Batch of 4 targets.
Target 1
Amino acid sequence: GLPAIGDMYFDEDDLAGLQQSGQLQAVVLHEMGHVLGFGTHWNALGLLAEPALQGGLDPHFTGAQAIAAFDLAGGTGYVTGAKVPVEDQYGPGTADGHWRESVFFTELMTGILDYGVTPLSAVTVASFADLGYAVDTTQAEPFTLVAPSARPAGARQLHFGPDLLHYPP
C-alpha cells in the first residue's frame, strides 16, 4: 500500500528565490514526504480521524508511534484536542495533509514553511513508521512543541498552498 512511484512539480519561477533564501532543500524534502505518503495515504490507511474536509472539527493522526513521539516532543500537556493534530485550515491541498500550524509552527511538514530552521521531527519520522516504513527516529532533527506565545513574531513564511495531489485522482 506504499507508493512505488511519485511526482513532484515545482514552479520554475520560484526556484531561484528558494535557492537564494536557502529554503529549496526544505521545500524539496517537504514534497518528498508527501510523495512517500505523508498526508496523501493517511485516509486510505485509516490514520486520519475527523478529516476537516469532510466536516470534522479536530482532524488528527492516529498512528501510535507518532502519538508517542508527539508526547516526547512536549505534547503530553496538549489538551486542545486529540493527538496528533492535523491542519484544519487553508482548504483542500493543505487541510488534512499537514501537521497543524498552530501547534507545530516551524516543523517541516506543516502547510507553511518558516524561513530559517524547519526541523524534520521525530513525530514526522514516527508517522512514516505508522505508514509502514522502517525508520530510524534517532535521525530526526531536534524539535520541541512550544506554547503559541513563544513563537517568534514577524518570522518570514511561505504558504505551500494546495501542494497535495491524491492518486488516483
Target 2
Amino acid sequence: APLNPGNSGGPLLNLNGEVIGVNRAIRTEGYTDSGEPVNSGIGFAVSINIVKRVVPALIANGRFDYPYLGIAAIDNLPLPVIEALELQSFTGAYVTNVVSGGPSAQAGLRAGTEPVNVPGYGNLNKGGDLIVAVDGQPVNLFDDLISYLTLHKSPGDSVTLTVLRGSERVDLTVTLGTRP
C-alpha cells in the first residue's frame, strides 16, 4: 500500500474500513540533494493477526517470546542447485544449519554434510533435510514455516515437520524453544 512519511504506526485498512495491519515502513530508494528520502510508494505493514498475538503478551509481560526451531534454511533454489543437492522437490525449505543442542537438533533434523560447489551460487552441503510441511501445512518457502510458527505456535508447543530425506518422507516432532 502507498504510505507517506509519518504514517508508520497507523492502521492499514481494507475497503470495508477494517484494520488489517499496522503500517511499519516505506521502501526508501535514496535521498534528494537536500537529504529528503525518496520513496517508491511501496509500504510495509505488520499483519493484524501478528499484532493480536504480540500486543497482549507485551502488555502482560513486557515482551513476546517467539518460537524457535534452531535452524537456518534456504529456498526458491535454481535448478542447478536443486540438481547439485540431489533434492526430490522444487519447493520446501532446505536445511543448511542445525544449531547444536537446539530444538531441531534434539528432534533429529539434519543439515547437509557433503560439500558441493555450485558455480555462481557458492558452497553448499548436500544431504540435508528438505522441510515440505509443518503440521500438515505445505511449506513452499522458508517464510511459510516462519509465518506458521509466528501466527500459531509458542515456545513449548510441539510441531510436526515433514521432511524429504533423500527420497524418504520423514515426520519429526519438534518441541519449540524460545528464540534467543
Target 3
Amino acid sequence: MKMGQVRWYGKIKPQSTYIVAHDPSLGTGGNYAAIEIIELPSLKQIGEWQNNVTPIQQQVKILREICKYIETEQVAAGGSTSIYYSVEN
C-alpha cells in the first residue's frame, strides 16, 4: 500500500510494537533522508519513506503522521499503542 510518499509492506497489528527511525538529510538533492518502520518482535520492515528534496521540517511532519497512523490503526483494532521512535542527530 502507498500513503502519500510512504510505502507500506504490511498491516499494523494491534498487539505489536513499532520502531520508527528517521535518518534526516538537508533535502538539497545530494543525500536521501529516510524513515524506516520496523515491527517487533518479528523485526520485519513494514514501511519506509525516502526523499532527497524534502526539508527537515517536513520530514518531521511525515514522521509524526506515520506515528499517528500506527496509533490510529492499533486503537481501532482494539490494541494498545506501543511506538518507539529515533531521530539520528
Target 4
Amino acid sequence: LKNVIFYLGLVVLILIIFFIFHYITFDHTVKVVEKEVIKEVKVVDDNYLFLGDSITEWYDLDKYYANLPIINSGLAGYTTTGILGKLDTLVYQYNPSKVFLLIGTNDLELKTSNEEIVDNIKKSIKNIKNNRPYSKIYLESIYPINNSNDKKIDKTVINGNRHNEDIIEINKMLVELAKEEGLVYINMYDELLDENGLLKLEYTVDGLHISDVGYEKITDVLIEYIKE
C-alpha cells in the first residue's frame, strides 16, 4: 500500500512539474491574425458596343473600325422605350468595355415628350451601370435633321414631327444627365451641322439617315474615344 501511495504521489508531482513548465515556456495569449483581403477587380477585354436605332444599325462598323472588337446593337425603328426593354440582349450579353449610346430621334417621330425621352435614356444608363459597372458609357447627342426643300430630302421620313429645336433642347438635358451620371457626352450635333443649322446635305441620304460621307465624319470623331 505504501508503494502504491508513493507511486501515485510521484505521478502527481510529475504532472504538476509538467504543467508548470508548459505554462512558463509557451505563450498562451490569444493571437489575432490579420488576413489581407484583396478586392477582386473585374477586367474585360476591349469590346466596343454601339447601341441605338437605324442610324446605328446602318453604320457599317466593320468598314469604319476594321480589326477592332466592335458590336452593332442598333435596331431600326427603336425608341428609348424599346432599348430600355432589351438591354439584356443588346448590351449585357456582350460584356462591353465601352458603350456608345445614341437614341431618341424615333421618339420625336411618335411625339414623345422631351422629358420622357431623357428619362428613358437615364433609366437605360442606370441599368447598364448597375448590371455592367465596368462598362464606360459614352452618351451621344441626338443628331440634327435636314427638313429643307432640297430634292434630296424624303418627306415621308422628314414628315414634320421631328424638329431641330426639340433636338437642341433634349441635347441640353443630355449634357446635364451626362454630368449627373459621370459620363462622357459627345456633341455630335454640332459636328454635323451646315451653315443654316441643319444636318449637312452631304452627310445625309434623306434628311435623317446618314450617308457614307456622314459616317466618315462621325467615325473621325468617335475613333478618338475608342482609342482613349
